[in-house]
Write a structure and sequence with these properties.
The protein has about 290 residues and is an alpha/beta fold. It folds into 2 domains: about 160 residues, Nitrogenase molybdenum iron protein domain (Rossmann fold, 3-Layer(aba) Sandwich); about 120 residues, 3-Layer(aba) Sandwich (Rossmann fold). Helix content is about 45%, strand content about 15%. It is built from 12 helices and 10 strands. It has a 4-stranded parallel β-sheet. A 3-stranded antiparallel β-sheet has the order 1-2-3. It has a 3-stranded parallel β-sheet with strand order 4-5-6, with helices on one face. α7 links the parallel β7 and β8. The chain is globular, with a radius of gyration of 21 Å. The two termini are about 35 Å apart.
Length: about 290
C-alpha cells in the first residue's frame, strides 16, 4: 500500500475500529464516512496523494479505478469522463468535471495528470497495478482517500480469501508453461498484472518479462510449446480458431484442449482480480478444482 498517514481523529477512529473488531463484540460499522482525515497515501506517482476532507467529486481514469469506485459504492460521487482521449481534450473534460480527487490507472500519461492537477487543483492518486499485491494495496489506499476504509477492507479480504484458496489447491501442482493471447497472438509480459496472476496460479508465462509488441512469433511459440493457452475475453480467440491455424494447431496446449478464457473485466486492476486468479488456476490445474 505504500506509506499511509492519517490525522489524529483518524488515528482514534482506527484504534476504536481495531479494538471493536478484535473482541468480536459487534459488526463492522458501515456508515458513509469514517473520520480519518487528513490522510496521505503514496500510490504509484512520485508525489503522495493528500486528502484533507472527503472528496465530493471523483474522476476515475481507467478500467481498474472505475471498478474500484463502483465496488466501494461511490457511484453518486463519481464523474465519468472519456478516458480514451489523451492530451488537452482529456484535460478539458477533467477540468469541466471539477473533481477534487482523480484516481488514475498506472498507464495514465503523467503529463496529462500534471495538467489536470494544474487545471483543477485536484488530488491525484495513481494506482499501482503490476501485481495482485499492488491491487490489494491500491484498493486500501483508495478506500482511505474516499472515506470508505471499511468497504475497502471487505473487498481486499475477499481477494485474499481467493488467493489462499487457490494457493492451497495448487501448492503441490507442478508449474505449467502458459501463453496468454490478447488477440492475434499478441501477449503480455510476465511482470504485469496478468503475468503475476499466472505466476500465483502456479504457471510460467513463456513470453517472458519483455515480449516485443505485436504478434508473438508462432515458430518461437512452437519451440516454447506451452502446456496451457489462455485468451482474454476481448481477444476474439477461440480453441476452434486456433485448431484451424496450421501452426497454432501443433501447439501442445491446443492439441490437448488445455485452453481457457480470462475475463478482461475480472483481470482489470480492481476488485475482480481474485476471480481472474481462480479462472486462470482452473485452466492450468483442472484436477485441483474437481
Amino acid at each position: 500500500m505504500g506509506r499511509v498517514r492519517v490525522g489524529a481523529a483518524g488515528l482514534a477512529a482506527c484504534v476504536l475500529f481495531v479494538a471493536g473488531t478484535a473482541c468480536g463484540a459487534r459488526d463492522e460499522p458501515t456508515g458513509e464516512v469514517v473520520p480519518i482525515y487528513p490522510v496521505t497515501v503514496q500510490g504509484a506517482a512520485e508525489r503522495p496523494a493528500v486528502m484533507r476532507n472527503a472528496p465530493r467529486r471523483i474522476v476515475p481514469l481507467g478500467a481498474g479505478p472505475r471498478r474500484i469506485m463502483g465496488a466501494l459504492g461511490l457511484k453518486a460521487r463519481t464523474v465519468t469522463v472519456n478516458d480514451s482521449l489523451v492530451g488537452l481534450p482529456l484535460v478539458g473534460q477533467i477540468r469541466r468535471a471539477r473533481p477534487d480527487l482523480i484516481v488514475a490507472s498506472g498507464d495514465s500519461d503523467p503529463l496529462d495528470l500534471a495538467r489536470a492537477r494544474t487545471a483543477t487543483g485536484a488530488t491525484i492518486y495513481v494506482e499501482p497495478d503490476s501485481s495482485i499485491e499492488d491491487v490489494v494495496g491500491a484498493i486500501g489506499d483508495i478506500g482511505l482517500l474516499t472515506g470508505r476504509p471499511l468497504q475497502a477492507r471487505k473487498l481486499t479480504k475477499a481477494i485474499e480469501r481467493v488467493r489462499r484458496s487457490v494457493a492451497v489447491r495448487v501448492r503441490t501442482a507442478p508449474r505449467v508453461k502458459v501463453f496468454v493471447d490478447t488477440g492475434d497472438f499478441a501477449t503480455v509480459p510476465s511482470r504485469g498484472l496478468l503475468g503475476d496472476l499466472v505466476s500465483e496460479a502456479h504457471g510460467t508465462n513463456v513470453a517472458g518479462p519483455s515480449p516485443e509488441p505485436g504478434p508473438f512469433p508462432l515458430q518461437r511459440l512452437l519451440r516454447l510449446d506451452p502446456q496451457a493457452y489462455l485468451a482474454t475475453s476481448d481477444s476474439n480467440t477461440t480453441l476452434a480458431g486456433l485448431r484451424a491455424d496450421p501452426l497454432a494447431r501443433r501447439l501442445r496446449a491446443i492439441r490437448t484442449g488445455r485452453f481457457g478464457i480470462v475475463s478482461v473485466a475480472a483481470a482489470a486492476p480492481g476488485p475482480g482480480v481474485g476471480r481472474a486468479l481462480e479462472e486462470i488456476a482452473r485452466v492450468l490445474h483442472p484436477d485441483a478444482f474437481r
